[in-house]
Amino acid sequence: MGLLGAHVSISGGVHKAPKRGKDLGCESIQIFTKNQMQWKAKPITDEDAERFKDEVLKHGILAVVAHDSYLINLAAVKEDLLKKSRDAFYDEIIRADKLDIPYLVFHPGAHMGAGEKQGLKLVAESINEILARAEGTRVKLLLETTAGQGTNLGYKFEHLAEIIDMVDDKKRMGICFDTAHVFEAGYDITMRETFLEVIDEIDSIIGLDQLKVFHMNDSKTPLGSRVDRHANIGKGVMGLTVFRVIVNEPRFKNTPMVLETPGGEKMYREDLKVLRALIESTDDAYI
Question: Can you list the domains of the chain with their CATH numbers?
């Protein structure tokens, strides 16, 4: 099994998140390091960072993942929005690095009518510019698979591969596999065989060693809908098979698997119970 967990609130300060995760039964947590709907936030102090790291250890959280602000678009065609996005993403890296968070998950961006080729190129250029500024940081940037809603990039594995190929410092890159987004983008992962075929596809196009985090979400919308709507585990249209395969796949036994399902903490508890009930005994586990 992987490191099961959920996206938890930082209300009251980032140091509050690890206990919230522990209370839910999380082994891993994902957080925003600031209000995700604001461009700027006060810096994380040394005291904030040490307190957060102490709480992670105290509450036995084994993996922490950060997610960037939803306002950021690294493929923005308007110069002012692109600059704001790049500055904000640089700040996201600095904040995660200060908190010793190893992974920063982000949506590649939306091309806003400029076309996919130009959009992918601009995302890579943004990453190169930002990483040059953030020299000395250690955070790995995880491109998230997307549903492909609107002009969003990242709904094909080839999109992620193209971006990584154009990034100068490739060792700073990886991917986050969102189950709902992949399904909504048109990859049928509802059966064991088809899910493993998709994993093989990722391995051949990007490299499976680049898959660092799972977002564990069911979908409210059908296969190939290109509409991003999460559902609770087993309450959407995907079924439980894919989740059973993921939590029992030996290759992912140390991979953070984070819920972003609706309903807040009460439903996280329920969803974590469902996922844990899918874990087979050693004798019955998928090989």
Answer: 3-277 (3.20.20.150)
